Amino acid sequence: RQAQYRLLRDKPSRSIDGVSVSLLLNAGLLVDLPHLGETGADGVGLFRTELQFMIAERMPSAKDQQALYADVFASMGDRPVTFRTLDIGGDKLLPYMPRVEEENPALGWRAIRIALDRPALLRIQARALLKAAAGRHLRLMFPMVATSAEFRRAKALVEGELDYLARQGSPRPTQVSMGAMVEVPSLLFEMDEIARAADFLSIGSNDLMQFLFAADRGNKLVSGRFDNLSPAALRALRRIAQWAGAADCPVTVCGEMAGRPLEAMTLIGLGFRRLSMSAASVGPVKAMLLALDTRPLTEFLDRSLDAVAPGHDHVETLRPALLAF
Ligand code: PEP
Ligand code: MG
């Protein structure tokens, strides 16, 4: 199997009807990056910067952060990388940070919420990223954005750091793109605003589904109760693809869904053209793509998800039907 997937590495990732899909890697540490060459992925779609913080015994200094980001850029060659700013809190605790007791940590003080309340954290990280990206294109995105106002505040903080570097005469990136993770359902009702404010979007389907269905992703009693291929989940995803397309805002899916061939196939049928996944998923997803004709799939999805016609059987999940493609 592995050897078979390796044979696919240098083939263009394109369906049989000519739809190109960018396959990207999820990463978080330098050891993940050699997989770029092994898998032939187009770049890193999600670099989880919190990993460096989670494995450290104390808060990584600004220097440590900048050094890691510079090493990441050095490993990328000219392939793009999208850094996600610190996604801590919830289930991602740092041993050296005081623990905040919360009844519902997943709904609690985490990710961009901490960054906006403790802006020094984001400022230091943003400065480290901007410095490490000197002479290159920096793509960064914020996790757990619930409103477009939050996104704009985080973006302004990063722009403040960019101005600071300009005043210092320090080397800066050639371009800075800022994106929002779409993983809190409220953002689906502010799609116009966020698609206009952000340079790109990235769907964190793990959290998006957890919050959409109100089912803790870490609790086995409930995490399997809903299906990512149910009409509700697929309609939510399709709306995001449509809105982002209408606003000309590039959108990636970077949750685990994107790395499972049947779900990746469905995402492509819904119109997504950028999928980010673990290294082990690239081969299986690419094998699926090379054998896929998107036209009947898209027709099927449109037919199944559009307004329910009289006599239309309501299905709980499209999984069995999708398996037939
Ligand atoms: C997600 O929520 O789908 C995601 C990619 O982020 P994480 O799994 O790191 O929360
Ligand atoms: Mg998430």
General description of the model:
- The chain has helices spanning about 1-10, 35-40, 50-55, 60-75, 110-115, 120-130, 150-170, 190-195, 205-210, 220-225, 230-245, 260-270, 280-290, 295-305, 320-325; strands spanning about 20-25, 45-50, 80-85, 135-140, 175-180, 200-205, 250-255, 275.
- It contains 15 helices and eight strands.
- It is globular.
- It is of the alpha/beta class and about 325 residues long.
- Helix 1 crosses helix 13.
- An eight-stranded parallel beta sheet has the order 7-6-5-4-3-2-1-8.
- The two termini are about 20 Å apart.
- Phosphoenolpyruvate binds near residues 87 and 205.
- Belongs to the PEP-utilizing enzyme family.
- It is found in: Cytoplasm.
- This is phosphoenolpyruvate--protein phosphotransferase.
Tag the structure with descriptive keywords.
325 residues, alpha/beta, 46% helix, binds phosphoenolpyruvate, binds magnesium ion
Sequence of strands across the biggest β-sheet = 7-6-5-4-3-2-1-8
Give the cofactors and ligands: phosphoenolpyruvate, magnesium ion
Order of helices and strands: HEHEHHEHHEHEHEHHHEHEHHH
Helical proportion? 40-55%
Counting DSSP E segments of at least 2 residues, the number of strands comes to 8
Overall 3D geometry? globular
Structural class: alpha/beta
N-to-C terminal Cα separation, in Å? 21 Å
User: What is the count of helical runs?
Assistant: 15
Poorly predicted ranges:
none
Tell me the fraction of residues in β-strands, as a range.
5-15%
How would you characterize the largest beta sheet?
A: 8 strands, parallel
Radius of gyration: 20 Å
Could you tell me the mean pLDDT?
A: 95
